[in-house]
Amino acid sequence: MTAPRVLVILGQSAAQTGQFHNQPEHWGSFASMLRACDASVRLVTDDLSVLTPNVLAGFDVIVNASTALEPTEAQVAALLERVRSGAGFVGVHAATATFVAHPDYLGMVGARFGRHDPLKHFTIKFTDHDHPITSGLADYDHDDELYELTADFVDRTNVVPLSGVTVLAEAEGHPMVYVKTHGKGRVAYLASGHDARSLDHPTFRTLFTRAIAWVAPTQSH
Length: 221
Description:
With about 220 residues, the protein is of the alpha/beta class. The chain has six helices and eleven strands. The longest helix is centred in the C-terminal third of the chain and has 14 residues, at about 200-215.
């Protein structure tokens, strides 16, 4: 079987003055992590025009690490259908803070960004030591934004506990790594990833690589 074909969506809305998730270091970190993955095709882009049925059919795993981008209804529908039909999806950090005008997308991801305190030092603790994404990993400290997530996909100020997800790691009571399904597709979410301090942490890189391998359709291996 061939290795999966992986598409990574980066970028940040130009309407946001601080391009805090769209610096050269982000592109470099994701390019480096992708090179470490077992993949037959690797594409990193901020061009949402790739979200069409024809283009997405050429990828087995879609990674969304963008921030506050505004896709069309047709682009979201194409993404959701590709995952529903069996492609894998990995959300990283602001994947819960983008496409937010589309509750169906947030439902597929499994959460919406609620809030976070200023960047701080905290410990990620693994709660599932048997899952393929987290097996054998030790708890680790890093500096990042500690995302507080909500299952209320319309009003982000109304923080509601998540449901339909299996939490693999947490920090201060907040999910940091979880998995779920969407139709025939597998979904994994990694809440860390504000900047290179978390993206380049060896444990995060392992989580990213394993997440791609776990969500990839079995026929792609």
